[in-house]
Amino acid sequence: MDATSPRHIEKNTRNWVEQVVIGHHLCPFAANAWAQTVVHVSDAQDLDGLLTDFGQQLERLLSQSNDVLTTTLIVVPGWLNNFEDYLDALTVLEQCLEDLGLHEEFQLASFHPQYCFAEHAYDDPANGTNRSPWPTFHLLRSASVAEAIAHHPDPDGIPMRNAAHFRSLGADNVTRLLRKVHGD
Domain limits at 97? Predict the structure, then answer.
């Protein structure tokens, strides 16, 4: 299978979610929502293309009930390889939700191959919790998130637990894990 084909990109993204996000319990809610999640591989090469895909995926979520379609991963393999450019695009998408009056109905989570939390050094294994095979925007229904965290004993502690878990694995093991699921 061609490593740049949409099918391969979707497969690797699914492997990453199943083996890293769900497999390491990074998101305690992901396993329940996974069957109602779409992985959309975007062919966008610029902001206009990304906005078009983003709008289509918003419409798709709005047109279907939560029990049919809960969330969407928008994977952008051909563009946004630079993390700073990715963050700029994330800001535009968040503003788009605001401008459309959908900022309370939807929220975005962000994942990138070079993800680096502002408060962490680049080589901190904790960054691996948000390192995906390709630049990815996770479009979530706010109501689903609120419902899920209402039944969790410590939703605010999830990021700290994830960081501690990946640090306990060590940088070399995190790198190997991500290379394996990213297909490197």
Answer: 6-182
Residue 1 inside a domain? The answer is no
Cα–Cα distance for residue pair 177/158, rounded to 1 Å: 20
Residue 97 falls inside a structural domain: yes
Alpha-carbon distance of 129 to 174, in angstroms, equals: 9
Residues 6+ apart with CB under 8 A from 46: 79
- Is 92 contained in some domain? yes
Amino acid in the structure at residue 93 = L
One digit per residue, pLDDT tens: the chain, 184 residues? 577 899 999 999 999 999 999 999 999 999 999 999 999 999 999 999 999 999 999 999 999 998 899 999 999 998 999 999 999 999 999 999 999 999 999 999 999 999 999 999 999 999 999 999 999 999 999 999 999 899 899 999 999 999 999 999 999 999 999 999 887 6
Q: How far apart are CA 74 and CA 109, in angstroms?
A: 11
The conformation of residue 149, written as its DSSP 8-state character, comes to H
pTM: 0.95
Cα–Cα distance between 70 and 141 in angstroms, integer? Answer: 7
Q: CA–CA separation, 115 vs 106, rounded Å?
A: 22
Question: Structurally, how many domains does the chain consist of?
Answer: 1
Task: Give, as one character, the DSSP assignment of residue 111.
Answer: E
The answer to the question of residue 173 being in a domain is yes
